[in-house]
Amino acid sequence: MKLRLKLILVFSFLSVCILLFATITGYLFAKKQLISGMQNEMQSELLAHSNKLEGWLLSKGKMLEMTAGLLQNTDEAQIQPSLLSGYKVADQEISDLYLGYTDGKMIDGSGWQPPADYDPRTRGWYKTAFESKKLTFGAPYLDFVTQKMAVPVSIPLQNTSGQLRGIIGADVLLQTLVDNVKSITLQGNGYAFLLDSQGTILAHPNDAFLSKHFSEVQELQSSSDLMQKILASEQGLEQYSEQGKTMLMVHRKLPVSGWVLSLHIPEEIIYQPLRQLQLLFAGIIAVSILVVVALTYLLAQRLVKPIEAVAGQVRLVADGDLTVEAPVTGKDEIAQLAAGFNAMVDGLRSMILHVQDNSRQLAASSEELTASANQSADAANQVAGSITEVALGAEKQADSANQIMTIAQSMAEQVEQISRTAGHVAAAAGETAQAAGQGRQVVNEAVAQMSKIGQNTTAIQSTIAELNQSSREIGEIIVLISALAGQTNLLALNAAIEAARAGEQGRGFAVVAEEVRKLAEQSNEAAQQVGVLIAKNATNLDQVVAVTQAGASGIQSGVNLVSQTGETFKQIVDAVLKLSAEIRAISESIRTIAGGNQTLITAIQDIDKTSKQTAAESQTVSAATEEQSASMQQIASASQSLAVLAGDLQAAVSKFQL
């Protein structure tokens, strides 16, 4: 590819990149500003329409508040359907006005008489106002009479003292509101529609959708999730697809009623100005590329012509003509290139002359070098033979050192094994001494515990003896109680006999005497049972005393045996400590021997290493001598080749015109 074409392509590519970057940046910025402006415009329009709708609803609520204020001081007897009908006539958008009292009575301005089982307090319009204690808007519905959308509005009716008298309500026709929503005009066939808080369509360009839930409309079923989203939020901006077109929607919830007003516009309307901007930017880029290509071509022509002139002179130099000279015009880089080319040709001419002289000298020197190299090769062969004999002797010495080192290493391993064994024995002896010391301590503790057990056993014997004595004393008391119970029984029997003699007057005394006799017999039986238990307890205590005395004797024997065991452990500890000291001394001697053996191994290794190094160096010197000999032969051969090359160089240099 020629330089001219390269320059045109490079400059064109850079220009296109810069223009594309600037164009894309400007386009994105314009797009952002356009979308932001359109969104702000839609939000402003939405706010204006929603305020208008909300104002209309509040005006209906205000009328109902004024009616409630007028009825506040009116007696119940004066509130008749004709009165409510008169208030209704004042506003043609109110289809009905009615009042439900707290006692369940109902007055309707249309003259409708409710059935006997009709209770307004169960109706939605009554409940919402009663619970909220303020003006409320109910769920819109399709009026049966007018076949138009209506919404119930209700407000509490209070007397002058603030007590609730009932709820006054009105059915407000939404046709004006529906017409207002349908009259909203937006760009590109945009439209608006109104939903209540439950999703029922109150106003829509398509009248077939009115009073239906959005889920019941086939055209809106694909946007069911979107409808749920806007019902759950206060306001926002959404993008969705409708019949294959991308739509932009802004929505806002009316605070007073909770209804949602939304404006819809095709997204292509927003981007329509951007298409014109795209065409403008494309035209600018095309014209800019043509201008850049033309300017680049002119610049390339101006740059390339001087370079082509220098290139022609370079081709002549390549053919061997060193008499050429490039023209130098101006002071730019191309002029500097031509001046540099001329300087290069001058330098090359001087170099060729110098090469001719050196080539002649080189041919003569190469012949002398060939003769000297042959003589050096013969001397190197003789040295290589002597070095080979030295290497063989060094290898034999290294083999002997290897055998000695192997024997010494075997001895070192055996000594190391003995040292480790002695160390293990010393450690085991130390552990044995420690264990024996602990055993002695445990025996001493056992002696102390056995002594405590003997003392406790003596105390137990004394306590048991006291218990035995107390049991005998209790037995004597039980005998005394048994005797008293027998005497009481006899006295009760005598009393019963005397009461029998007394006849009817002593019957009560006879009953008491009978009860006393029964208690005396029960006391005697209980005393005998306690006596039996005391006798058994005394027998058991005697057995415990005998066992405790035998245990005390055994404990004393145990104390004596444990004391003897402690003395035996002491002798074992002394013997083990002595053995441990002797084993440590043996281990120390073995470590000393191992250290000396290691020193011997180190010395042998040094000898072996030195022998191997000597053999290796001898072989290295021998190989180097052989290589030197071969190198001398190569030098001689190279010298001959160099003489040939010198002749060729002289022939090549002679081709240049100087």
UniProtKB/TrEMBL annotation:
Q: Record keywords: Transmembrane helix included?
A: yes
Membrane topology annotation:
Multi-pass membrane protein
The protein's matches in CDD domains, at most eight in alphabetical order, are given as: HAMP, MCP_signal, PDC1_HK_sensor, PDC2_MCP_like
* Presence of the UniProt keyword Transmembrane helix in the record: yes
* Signal sequence interval, chain numbering: none
Q: Where are the transmembrane segments?
A: 279-300
Cited PROSITE patterns: CHEMOTAXIS_TRANSDUC_2, HAMP
Kindly provide the name given to this protein in its UniProt entry. Methyl-accepting chemotaxis sensory transducer with Cache sensor
User: Quick one: where is this thing mainly located?
Assistant: membrane
Q: Name one GO biological process term.
A: chemotaxis
Q: Where in the cell is it found?
A: Cell membrane
Write down the Gene3D superfamilies for this protein, in alphabetical order: Methyl-accepting chemotaxis protein (1.10.287.950), PAS domain (3.30.450.20)
Task: Give the matching SMART domains.
Answer: HAMP, MA
- What's a GO cellular component annotated to this UniProt protein? plasma membrane
Family of the protein in this entry: Belongs to the methyl-accepting chemotaxis (MCP) protein family.
Q: Which UniProt keywords apply?
A: Cell membrane, Chemotaxis, Membrane, Transducer, Transmembrane, Transmembrane helix
**Which residue numbers delimit the HAMP domain?**
301-353
- Give any Pfam family that matches: dCache_1
Q: Which residues form the Methyl-accepting transducer domain?
A: 372-629
Output the InterPro entries linked to this UniProt entry: dCache_1, HAMP_dom, MCPsignal_dom, Sensor-like_sf
